[in-house]
Amino acid sequence: MAKGAAPLYLAIADAIEADIRAGALRHGDRLPPQRALADRLGIDFTTVSRAYAEARRRALVEGRVGMGTFVQASGTKSAPASGIVDLTMNFPPRMADTALTSRLWAEVAGLETTGGMDLLLRYQEVGGTRADREAGVAWLIDSLPDLAFDRLVITPGAQGALLALLTLLKHPDRPVAVEALCYPGFRSLAGHLGAALVPVAMDGDGLIPDDLAAQCARHRPALLCCTPNLHNPTTATIPLDRREAIAAIAREYDLTILEDDAYGRLAGNGLPPLAALAPERTYHIASLSKALAPALRIAYVACPDARGASRLTGALRATTSMASPLGAAIATRWIETGLAQQTLNAIRAETEARHALAHRLLGQDGLRGDPRAYHAWLPLDHGWSRGDFASRLRHAGIGVVTSDAFVIGPAPEALRIGLAAPLERAALETGLREIADLACQSPTLANLIV
């Protein structure tokens, strides 16, 4: 390796990349220990450390705790923004069924013979075509058997639905009730639109109806936005008796419910949605981004009636316009051919395997999680603060999300761990082992400051 004008650590990273491209280094090859390489090259250890960090940033190598640094071929693992394993994101895991993947792409290609160029070059009606809405009804039929296509509206993702609904339904003088740990996207929307939020207390079973009633009596919210299934971030699922109580409270206090059911099909628990218990006042939002594919920015919104659907369509026209006709057509094709359900089954299987790994490594540390949730919730013990714990993980190359991203009010000492972001389970295991090793230590023993 020749020394040039570029900083030496970049030259080392460039050499690693060149050797990978030339085939001299292959996926899985172990690089020399950093101190050994520094001695061999006659340079500072910190220069080699920076070089390896740069190679990790480029997703050329990965560090494995207690094992060393290994080459990873291009495309074998998602490149985290800052370190070895990114456990911050919450989306479906990569399924291993290559035959199913090929069929999904084949159905996308098949749209050329049916939808043709109109899917690319024509505007289509806001709220979705009748065929696409009927596919949405079919997708939701198990949980909402009385749903008709004229009550269903197709939106550009759940965020597009929430934006339109909050614009349409928020009251200028009344706040919005939300779970005390709230989806960050909704917090951002509320702040953007100037909607005040009232937190409702939660426990291991989710939103507490008694506190909802108390907040309604005290603050008179006009809306309730909540996630009954696989709550983000706690993974709690609201049991039937609480769902019935929430529906009754909504009627008593004239609350309109925004039911963010991004994970309902994934959960598959057979519990009736709030839209089945209080259909006259509930907008049920079922996103495909979480259930099937993040790039499929399609959500099906079941409205209380056809008039509500018409009003939502008007709000969409004024905010986000139509959902992607191509995305809606892909969703319809996958639903009609059964591929959507097969994909959901494959995603569930991989999710359950990852949850089992997380439970094995962190179950003794109080990890909370549902086997079908893409994320888990870790309350901290041994005197750790969430900030210190997350900072120590960042130094080890592990990214997690602290409770601050979700909280309305005082923040608990807890973290959300995304189980699906690493493409390979081995990378997930690396991150989870690092978390487990840190969780069993006290902050004073883990402190490296001298």
From TrEMBL:
SMART domains: HTH_GNTR. Residues 6-74 form the HTH gntR-type domain. GO terms for molecular function: transaminase activity. InterPro entries: Aminotransferase_I/II_large (IPR004839), HTH_trans_reg/aminotransferase (IPR051446), PyrdxlP-dep_Trfase (IPR015424), PyrdxlP-dep_Trfase_major (IPR015421), Tscrpt_reg_HTH_GntR (IPR000524), WH-like_DNA-bd_sf (IPR036388), WH_DNA-bd_sf (IPR036390). The keyword Nucleotide-binding does not apply. It comes from the Bacteria. Keywords: Aminotransferase, DNA-binding, Plasmid, Pyridoxal phosphate, Transcription, Transcription regulation, Transferase. The keyword Membrane does not apply. SUPFAM superfamilies: PLP-dependent transferases, Winged helix' DNA-binding domain. Pfam families: Aminotran_1_2 (PF00155), GntR (PF00392). In the C-terminal section; belongs to the class-I pyridoxal-phosphate-dependent aminotransferase family. This is PLP-dependent aminotransferase family protein. It comes from Novosphingobium humi.
